[in-house]
Amino acid sequence: MFEILPLVAVALALYTLHASRENARRLGEEIVRLRREMEALKVAGVVPPEPAVAVAAEEEPAAKAEPGPWTRPAASEEDIGRAIFGGAPAEAAAAEEEPAETAPVAARESFESRIGARWAVWVGGIALALGGIFMVKYSIEAGLLSPAVRLSLAALFGLVLLAAGEAVRRRAQPVIANAFRNAMIPGVLTAAGVITLFAVTYVAYAVYGYVGPLAAFALLAAVSFATLGLSLLHGQALAGLGLLASMATPGLVATGEPRPWPLFGFLAVAWLATLAASRLRRWQVVPALANAGLALWAVLYLTQAGTVETPPVLLALLVLAAGLGLLWPGAAGEGEEERATTDAWERLLSPPAAAVSLTGALALLFPALVFATQVPGLALADYAFALVVLSLAALGAARGWAVYPAMFSAVALVLGTAILAVMPGVTLLDGFGLVAPPLPEGATPVSPLPLAAAAPVNLLLLTAAAYAALGIAGAWLRGRTSREFAALWSVLAPAVPFAVTAASLFVFGNLAFDLKHGLVALVFGLAFLAAAELFSSGRAEGEAVFVPQWTFAAGGFAFLVLSLHALTEGLATTLGVAVLGALAVFATRLRHWPVLPWLMAGAAAVVAGRIAVEPTIVGAANLAKTPVFNQLLAGYGIPAALLALSAFELRRWPGERVRNLLQALASLFVLLTAAILVRHAMNGGVLDSAVPTLGEQAIYTLLVIGASAVMMTLDLKSPSPVFRYGSMTVGVLSVLSVASAHLAGLNPYFTGELLGRWPVFDLLLIGYLLPGVAYAGLARYARGRRPMPYVTMLALAGVVLAFAWVTLTVRRYWHGESIADWKGFLQAETYTYSVVWLLLGVLLLALGSRFDSKSIRLASAGLVLVAVVKVFLIDMSNLEGFLRALSFIGLGAVLIGIGLFYQRILSGKSVPQG
């Protein structure tokens, strides 16, 4: 019972189609007959009477008669052609060309239109396909017809559907074609016929074996190409169906052994046919799917086939790149009008035919990476990788819409080089094997081979050179139409070859001396500096930031630095980088390029990186043990001097930020030089990772305090935010270092470090007293020149260090060189702490009064408070007899004396100063 329903649906659909076609034919004939009568009357000079409504409208001058069916012009040949090929009539096209302000708002489609005009067509097409399937199913189950007869009838049914689609298309009205172009009855009938013929051919080959592989392949290909041709008449949906059939054909027809040339030849021809149809109709979805299909086949073949040949895959990919550049979008995307968006980068990233551009770039990217993974196991894989990458770059440089090929060419070359250099033999995209067609019998998938031969260094360097040339050409060509695209290419042109050359040098080269990489990098550097000069010629000084000048100059400088690393080593490399940066600064006398001073900052970053990797500059085994006068003095001191000289050279340079940066870098390198020389001298000429001693840390602290004072002096003589804020930053960091190292981490009380034989002139003197005095002097110097909270912090740091010196000196008096905490406390020692703390408090009070410093007086009050707490909480419980009484008597006398002193100074000065 249910099997009859599809037949009924098919019959009803055909009857409805026939009735609507007859009505449309009769209406069209009547309209043509009436138009001919009107033309004959006009020729004879007889004017037909107007309707009463029209006469009444003529009596009112302000009224305008609406055009009716009698006043419309006859359909032109152009309208008929548009109707046949699926386009809009001339009137509709003219309406589309009118400005948006005058175009009427399109009426929203009604629910009745959706149901009757669109869904009925789609459901009818599905019903036709299901009817054919059920009919074949029923005949098989009932055994009524032989397989040959069933296939013949199915093929006949498909041809009938194709003929019906063409007949309906020829008689379709232009209005229907324009309003319901995505639900056209001819396209649905044609698609149903194509599916039927494709299924018949495949069943005849795969199920019954009536035709061989070659004949089946030819028949399926013929159906696919015929579908692509019919898509020019029926639209993009049918083109997608033909594309799907084309891409599925090689997978459906399996041969005994793989034949890559016929396979990729057919795929390339199918892809070109799809692209040609898309070019005529300006489609984007179908060519995007075609790009994805061709790339999928290439990846599947390269990763899953038993025997792989490189040339056919490479040729198909080169055809893809050439087709995108010459056929579609080709030159058609160059003349597109700019979109309404005001963001230039948004326009750049959403070019005409963006879907085709993006999918085409990805379709070349993935096979290129797979080629890289097959080196050296697959012959010519390295050349294929290079050619695919360069084809992407050439496409990106030649076409203004090809921003995605430009970007993905950089990704492909950098990732491919990383695969060759770091991960040789790794297999990418293995997951595609899940959707791969079954392999022929006896074939085994290709497994990557280990790196058994030398990497293609020469090819990588040549590819980098070709990419650089394409990048410079792309920046030059795109600079005429899109500054953003030119800026993108000016970044990629030096950055990508630099990454490739650097990877090749550090992985495959000789870091001690490599003439090949050194000369290549030198040529690259000079070429990009010449490009910067070429692009900058004719530009007025003071214009807005010109990206190619910055990127090409910076790229040339980077290549020169890389050349130094290839041709020199150790101290010579470090000094050479610093000298290159200084030369860039002095080049501002010849060229006022804003980028030149920043190159010195880049050189300082490279020197700092080299120091971080190898602090000894020349290697621990080659470092001399002579204090101060050794390789460290040159390796650290000369870059510091060149930075200071560069900052001085830029004293009249309009860019203040770079001058301030060089001043800061010079200050840091000077501090670093002093610190490293001290560490070298105090460790017997050896630099290691051992924790520094208190004496070494004290020298660092004294150096930092001195650097803060020097920067403050420089700021007073030549005001600069670097010196102003740098001096305070260094001061704050030194105070934090004192709190963490002097008072806690390196404190002899906790570490047990010996203080030395001589009292006073011992480790406590350099570790606590001298830094405390230095902080007091810096606070005095900064008073009135720096914010009061900063001055107060320095003064309190000096007081804390003095307190620590006094306290630890008392402990040394009672315990000797070792004052470790495990020795405990003596009663006399405990009493001595109270005495010296009170004396120190009184001394600080006197100094605060002498220098009129409120912060020192407050520190004195705090210290006395600590002494009071100690006497009442510790001395009362730990001291006995005479010492306990003496402690309280002394405390009371000192407190009374302090009270009298405060009364005197407060009565003499009503407003104390900080």
Automatic annotation (TrEMBL):
Keyword Repeat attached: no
Source organism of this protein record: Shinella pollutisoli
Domain of life: Bacteria
Keyword terms of this UniProt record: Coiled coil, Membrane, Transmembrane, Transmembrane helix
Protein name, per record: DUF2339 domain-containing protein
Keyword Transmembrane belongs to the record: yes
Coiled coil start-end: 17-44
Membrane-crossing segments per the record: 119-136, 148-165, 185-207, 214-241, 261-278, 285-302, 314-332, 353-372, 378-398, 410-429, 449-473, 485-509, 515-532, 544-564, 570-588, 595-613, 628-648, 660-678, 698-716, 728-746, 758-778, 790-810, 830-849, 856-876, 882-902
